[in-house]
Each structure stands twice: as structure tokens, then as C-alpha cells.
From TrEMBL:
Residues 216-240 have a biased composition (Polar residues). GO terms for molecular function: protein-lysine N-methyltransferase activity. The lineage of its organism: Eukaryota, Viridiplantae, Streptophyta, Embryophyta, Tracheophyta. Residues 216-241 are annotated as: Disordered. This is SET domain-containing protein. It comes from Hordeum vulgare subsp. vulgare. Gene3D superfamilies: set domain protein methyltransferase, domain 1 (3.90.1410.10). It comes from the Eukaryota.
Amino acid sequence: MSSPAAAPSDDDAKLRCFLQWLQANGAYLRGCTIRACGRTGFGVYATAVDAGGADGVVMAVPLDLAVTPMRVLQDPLVGPRCRALFEEGGVDDRLLVMLFLMAERLRPTSLWKPYLDVLPSTFGSSVWFDDEELAEVEGTTLHRATIMQRKSLQKLFDDKVKGLVEELLHVDESGSSIEVRFEDFLWANSIFWTRALNIPLPHSYVFPGSLDEQQNSTGEVLSGSSLTNQQETDITTKNCSGDKIPEYRNTESIWVEGLVPGIDFCNHNVKALATWEVDPEGNLTGIPASMYLMLAQAGKSSVETGTEIYINYGNKGNEELLYLYGFVVDNNPDDYLMVHYPVEALRQLQSADIKMKLIEMQKAELRCLLPTSLLDRGFFGTSTSSGEDDDNKKNASHFSSYSWSGQRKVPSYLKKNVFPQEFLSTLRTIAMQEHELEQVASLLGEVGSSEDSEPSDAEIKSAIWEVCGDHGALGLLVDLLRVKMAELEEGTGTEASDGQLLEKFDSIDAEDSSSATVERNKATKSRANLRSCIVYRRGQKQLTMMFLREAERLLELSADEQT
């Protein structure tokens, strides 16, 4: 039995094997390498001052190595069964990749073993939290979302995933006796969400020949070709709903989610040194149909040897980072607060059905995201940018179009209101008293007298604004934010106490410079999870306090104008 001290050398051996596997399959690293990070896991590091050379390309990987839905459907071992599942609608493209990852990780003879062996086995994302760690985010949106996600994943595993992976493992004898556990699914789910990229695959790569060339006389797709038209449509339609994928499709690129071994070892930083691109023809990399990692300042500045080469995962708040990736960013400029009015509470109000119908007709939402950046133009912000002027013009236009009779004036505080008008429209509707509801109905009756006509969303908003103004909505907003703060503090204390805990954590980490062991790594990982929880929940309390302050000021001014 090996001792704990042998673990690092085992990781080194697996990493060497993976790097050899990359090279054997046509990939190359130029002026960089993949090695262990200070934290658990690996990262990409510069090994030369002129990393990437004049063109800045430090890594190139053939797209044949990418784990995508198409790659799964073409797999000689499990592809036929996966094709049938996909065509029947039994799995979507993301689940298809997860099933493949699970089966290949469990299969002793997998050709993907060098890659799968170096992937992390556990994660810091909230779905992996133990009960103690999850209690550290009690009262937050993340806490509720994590509990719901666990239940959803467990049900999906029990109802579908377990049986399908066992079926894929039985395709060859090497995996026929392997037990499939929920933890395997949790692992594959986390691998996908932490490492998948939205890849613009060249159309010629997915369809190597014309449709006529790909079909025989019976109309069936010949072996060796890529996807049928319907399979391509299914995959790209599902993926085009993501944030970073364009809404259009063209004949040049087909956007697909997948894992690209090597490039997926880049960690996140908002000040990223590198970006990735696809080289369809191989003009830059020398590898047709490849993805490459390129330094953002290629040829303009040198990179110090040993510098970690980061990419930017996008503008994400700590809630999303902790939920999906398992880390947070201190003082995250992209942090946000989720505020919502519970639908259960709405159903208990007088005239609930009418109010819910009005909210639906206004295309309004019961929840909204409040990014940190909104605070810049509030009463206590410092922004004087032209962007603020654009927002003010938009809001002024919004109110001018709401003037029903001209009796209710545009509020004096309009320029300092940081809250989205769409959400305030929802709150105005919810806060209406019975007599106000009757007045709104009377106004709308003026435009909806015809049997075939229904008031528009703008007309409904206009009528509600004319009758109610902002006072009721702002009072409801203040109540929502106070309840949110109470929930946050009831679960984990005040923002000040979180600040003290962070100071203790950071001082312990600074003093702890002992040599690493397996047990120490586990303790370090647990501390990292707890610290991430504190950073996240402290940020939520800070944002709640700042938005509450803005809402209370608006309520005061609204009350003055109401009298």
C-alpha cells in the first residue's frame, strides 16, 4: 500500500502520460506546459519569455480530440446505441456527453484514459458541499438552488442515467461488472459544466462531404460520415440558447458545446492573458480543424517564465462561479443580487388571479437581477459616465409613454433610480389596492371596449402608473430587501462577522506553509470551500444593504411627492 507522500508522484506520472497522449494525437504546446497549481488541480503556465512566438499561439489541439456530441455519436464502441438514444429523444446533447464521460471513465480499457485520469475527481461547486459547508450559505439563493439541483440530479440518475450507462458499459466485456454510482454522474455533470466550451466547429468538419456523398441509395448515412441533417439541427438548436452563442446560424460554423483536452486546463481570471480560437484550415497552427490558445498581447510584450496563462470564463457573479465552478472572486465587480416576489405569496393576495393576469399581459417578471454596476448611478454612487445619460433618456422615454392623462408627473428621482422598470411594474401591480384595481380597470375599459381588442402591455403599464405611482411598489421593494437581509443574517450572521472570519481564514493560510500531504490537502480544500462560502454570502449581504439603502431613499422621495 502506497503512503500519502507518494500521491504527488502518481499525479506527476498521470500528467506526463496525458502530455504524451496529447502529442501522440497531434496536439502541441509551444512555450507553455500544464502543471499543478498552488491550489488543487492543474493550470497552464508559460515556460519561456517568448511563449507562443510572433503569432502568440502557445497550444494547438486537433478538434478530433474534442469530446462533443458528434464525437460521441461517431464513437465506434458506443456510438450506435447513443445515436439511437439521441434520435429517440431520450437524451439531449449535454446529457449525451455526460453519459459518455461516465462510461469511458469507468471502462478499464478506455482510449480516453490518459485524459480522464488527470481530470479532477472532486469539486468545490456547491452541489458537492457536505451539510456543514451547505449550512454556510443558508438563506441565500445559492442554498435553495443547490438543494433543488441535488434532488433533480438524483432523480435523473435513478430514472434514466444509471440504466443507460450500465447499457453502454455492457457493449464490451471489460465494463460489464462495474457498478454505476450517483457520484459518477455528479462527477460527469461537474466536468461538463466546469470545462465545456462553446465551439464554432467548421461546417466542413461536421459534414466532410455533401449530403449526396454521405448517403447511399437507401438514404442511410454511411459509416465514417459525421451527422445527419436532423442530428445537426437538434444539437445546434439546443446550444444556440446559451448566452455566448450567436442567435444566427450560417454555413460556415456550427456551434457545439464540448471539452477540448489541454485547453480546458486554463483557469479563470478577469484579466486573462489568453483567448482561444478555432483554425478551420490550419493556416495559423498547421493543424486543419484545430483549436488554439493564443496570448492576447502576442508580439507586444513578454510573459515571465512561470506565469499562469488564464482565460476569461465571462462576466460572472460569485453565485454563478460557486454554483458551477467551485470558486469565487474577491470583490467581484460582476457580482449581482437576485430579488424575487414569491409566487406563493402572490397567490394568497386578494384579487390574485387578476393581478397574475395583468403581470402576464405586461410580460413582467416576478424576479430580477441587480448587478453591482447599477449602484454607480444611484444616490450613493459616483458614476458620471455617458452610459448613465443613456439610461436616463431610456427611463424618461419610458415614463413619457406612460402618461395617460398627464396628471401624474415623471418622478424627480428618476435619474437616480437604479431598479429596473420592468420589475417595478410587477411590484406596482402586486401592491395595488382594491379601489386602485377598479380605477385601472376603468381606464383600460376605455381602450378595450371592442370585443376583439385587448389592451397592450404598454397601455396596462400606463394605466397602473397613472393610478398607483411608485409609492406602493417601492414600499414592497423595501420589504423584500429587508426580508432578504433578515434571511441572510439569520442563517450566517452579519456582514461584519463575515469580515472577521475572512481575516482569520487568510491569516491561517498565510501561516500554514508546511509540506503538503493527502490529509492536509483535504483540509485545505475544505477551508477553501468554507472561505468561498463566506466571500459569497458576505457579498450578498453587502449588496442587499446597498440596494436597500437606495430603495429606502426612493421611498422617502416618493412619499414626499405623493403628499
